[in-house]
Amino acid sequence: MQFLAQIALGEGLLSVFMCQNDPGLCDEWDAVAGGNRAFVFTGELAAVGVPAVGEVQLGEVSAIKIVDVAAPDYDEARRRFGSEEGVGQRVVLGQLGGEPSWLQGEETPDCGDCGKAMTLAAQLEEGHQYETGANFGGGCAYAFHCSGCLTAAFLWQQ
Question: Which of 12, 37, 61, 145 is the most buried (most CB within 10 A)?
Fold first, then answer.
């Protein structure tokens, strides 16, 4: 699985992974089919280096700048940010928390442990450059977590 993102949560660190088999067919758009995984790690954590063997598929690592935009929803926040900064909306790479802006239809996963609806940790866009962006089929990805059970889920829509 390809590592995609780490997101700091109050209770730990959310790490997101997605299947990148060629030719694919991992059902990575489904939160529970096994083609992607998300984990909440707690306790003492340390960074690891790039593996010495294997293929590195994303040749670039990016940190993001978090900008607070006062808007009623994600789509309006992207529009306002683009307008205020004089850039295209594609510069915005997602949101932390809030409500998902679903592309197809609502798919909030339930926690496999307690059965309650999970909370959105982040909505992620593919990125600005094809060579270094994640592959969400031209769509968006959604990372969720259950703070009570320390479980997580990940899916995407196009």
Answer: 145
Higher-pLDDT residue of 131, 141:
141
Q: Does 51 fall in a domain?
A: no
Residue 57 pLDDT more than 80?
no
Which residues sit opposite 41 in a β-bridge? 13
Cβ neighbors of 52 (< 8 A, separation 6 or more) are none
Q: Does residue 18 lie in a domain region? A: yes
92 neighbors 78 (Cβ within 8 angstroms) = yes
Which tokens belong to 119? Answer: 């909370």
For CA atoms 101, 107, 111, 112, the dihedral sign is: negative
For residue 77, is pLDDT > 90? Answer: yes
- Where do the H-state alpha helices sit in the chain? 74-85
The domain tally of the chain equals 1
